[in-house]
Amino acid sequence: MLDDMELPRDPGWPLEASTWAAGLMEQNSAKAAIVAALDTDTPIAEALPMELPSAHRLELVSAVLLLFLASLTDGLVPPPLWAKLSTSLPSLTALPCTAWPGVRSQVLDILATAPNHNIAFVFLTATVSRVSAELSPGTLQGSGPTGLSRRLNFRRGDEDGSKKRRARERRYAEILGPLAFRGNDKDKVLKDKGRTVIEMFLSRE
Fold it and tell me: With CB atoms 3.0 to 4.6 Å apart as the test, which of 26, 111, 166, 201 could cross-link to 125 if both were Cys?
């Protein structure tokens, strides 16, 4: 649905409110329709006006997702569980990306002690990871027909696509971290840990 549309280039789109179309914040009736569709287990697409562009639909769904996460009193991961995670992984933000697969397993082991929160966390991060990947495709620059030129073009396209995807994953993590893990907003170390946990689950590397 989004293939032929000019989409915002900001890596935070569609989760970042500042990237949304003008007037989207005031479309309360559309947001209410999305919430009603979720409550009644009906397709969201049927709840929105047919003439609404696909990009705006995605922005509205994102707005409702953020509203839902913000409404969770204890966040997606309750403070006691988040405290356990933080103390179990004290040097989390200093770890290289190559260590993330092993750390993800440790995080899931701890979250497994609270199954409902574990399922919600995994579902959220898996869904957002897919959105990030689909909005950050590799791009091919140049059109060398064969041989070395073509291979270099593919490599360059892959590198550009990976950079865009990583930038998007990080920005999404910065947005979702404070909503998923509630704590002292002034504690930068704790805030960075939350961002890192989200980012490592969004990463496809």
Answer: 201
